[in-house]
Amino acid sequence: MVTWENYEEYLLLHVDGELNDADQRALLGFVALHPEVEDELKLYQSTVLAADTTMVYEHKEALLKAAFTAKTIALGQWWKYGVAAGVILFVSVWGFRWVSGDNGDATKSIEIVTSRAAKSTNFKNVEPATTTPKVSQPSPTISNRLRHSATIPNEEKGTSVARNSVHANTSQIAKEVAPVKLEIRTIKPITNEMAAEVTPAPVELRPVAVNKAMTEPSAAQDRPNSNLLAWLPEEKKEGLELLRENVDQKLGKANQIKENIKDTQLALKFGNRELVVINF
Amino acid sequence: MDAKSYNVCVHDWADALFRFACKCTGNVEDARDIVQGSFEVLWQKRESVVSEKGKAFLFQVAYNQSVDMYRKKGRVQYQEELKQGGSTHPSNPDLKRVLDKAIARLDEQSRALVLLKDYEGYRYEEIGQITGLTETQVKVYLHRARKTLKQYLVSVEHII
User: Is 0.85 exceeded by the ipTM?
Assistant: First the structure.
């Protein structure tokens, strides 16, 4: 209820717009009953400030921030790119593996050669090596040599011829490293062929030492005293030692490459999914 | 609040905040600094401020910054005639000029309460949230400011 004691508070609440409808009606009734209060009400209403809308902040653009809008990504296109990249990677990896697989075979053959060479006490036993050039040659050469040795009547002459052939062939062996390994791998078929060629003429099998060494290299290795290397001069021995060192170095490199590749894993991931995993 | 809502706040409330800051500090340059600082704070705190409370947050920051500026500089040299206007009653230039003088005579807090009430139409409770006062304190301080303004107007009318 509005009275002379509280009418001013009602006037202020009315100016501030804080009166409810009932109090609003009560105040207006009080003002109607007492016109002198109306001037006071107008004075209070004149204290209300009106905002000047012409006063504006001129640098709004400097306050704005860049809104991050979501971009729609065509997943189908990305899938195509992903599949294409996967195929290319797959082909590349298999190509690489194919190439390295060839190298691996070569490494194996080198290992075979070296293991056999190591058994022969580091090329000290030259008999297999000296005979291999003959074996690796085309069959006409072998047959010629066999025929030539077969014409020697006694054992001593045969050994001298064999010695000459050793001297002639050691320098050739020092130059040809790769043929050494290939010849050992193909030793059996050629000896069979050679045996078939030799069999019709029993006399031609006289150079037993050569053929036996070719067919049974381990037997030749087990005979240290029959080592043809002992017949070689010192400069030839040094050449063979140099050859052995070079071959050992290459084998070491090949083994190192093999060890590096052995525990390697190549994985193709798309997001968190592993599409292809290749273990070497 | 995301960047889009923030930009909406800039478009909707930058002018009102600037007017409020101008009246609080009585200085256009200080008002610009307050507006810039208020929106900077809003951007930094945007993760914890909902869009509906953006305006209240801005005025709260602006009020606190104007109070800090007032305490730092001492009593500000209030510019009764702001270059950009600041008219209280554009339809009545004389009343506008008198009211500008009357507002300048109020203390910082009372001036802010009158501005929040008249310019922005906040209720006592909302003004209390912005200024950190209770609703009763807002009511008392605001009524006291109104009486001061009325007395000034009456005194000027007598002089005129």
Answer: no
Judged by a CB distance cut-off of 8 A, whether residue B140 touches chain A is: no
| B 17-56 → A contacts, CB under 8 A | 17-19, 22-23, 32, 35-36, 39, 43
On the question of pLDDT at A127 being above 70, the answer is no
Q: Which residue has 């798309």 as its token pair?
A: A270
Q: Is the CB of residue B135 less than 8 Å from the CB of residue A9?
A: no
CA A57 to chain centre: 63
pTM: 0.49
Tens digit of pLDDT for each residue in B29-52?
989 999 999 999 999 998 899 888
Report the C-alpha gap between B36 and B48 in whole angstroms: 19
Please give the C-alpha separations between residue A153 and each of A39, A147, A163, in angstroms, as whole numbers: 158, 12, 16
DSSP of B113-132, one letter per residue?
HHHHHHTT---HHHHHHHHT
Contacts of B115 in chain A (CB under 8 A): 49
**How far B14 CA sits from the closest chain A CA (Å)?**
6
> Considering CB atoms only, which of B14, B89, B147 is closest to A63?
B14
Reported confidence tier of residue B145, pLDDT bands at 50, 70, 90: very high
